[in-house]
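Hi F.,

I've been meaning to write this up properly since the lab meeting, where we talked about keeping a consistent format for the predictions we share between groups. The idea is simple: the sequence comes first, exactly as it goes in, then the structure tokens exactly as they come out, then a line or two of notes. No screenshots and no reformatting. I'm using this chain as the first example so we have something concrete to point to.
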Amino acid sequence: MHPIGEASKQSGVTIETIRYYERSGLVPLPARSPTGRRLYDRDGIARLRFVRRCRALGFPLADVRDMLGLIAGDVADCDAIRNIASANLAAVQGRINELTQMAQTLTMMISDCNDGHDGCPMAKRLLGPE
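Output, unedited:
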């Protein structure tokens, strides 16, 4: 059993985030020492790593919660997890497309801002009508 600081180091999840995940029900409340300190076992730390890795891949907390519910010990509902991951991939690809469009628009606006103009073309465009 490991105190929260050690669980944080081993999982790569900050102490405050661990507490948030507990409050939100994403990870179960850990055992407590006689003095009331949180104590995490290997499974609890593995679960924290799972959540951290999912979040790093952009999974919303609701999807992480759903995937955790699809895992029982060493057995997981691979089809259901694959479906959740596929939906997340589609969302990531959509965000990439949006960011690409934003970058193109910004590049165009920046190129319109040449020295010697009266006023700022970018500010005028941002302030102007749709």
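Notes:
The two ends are 59 Å apart (CA to CA).
The chain has one domain: 2-127.

If this format works for you, I'll send the rest the same way.

G.
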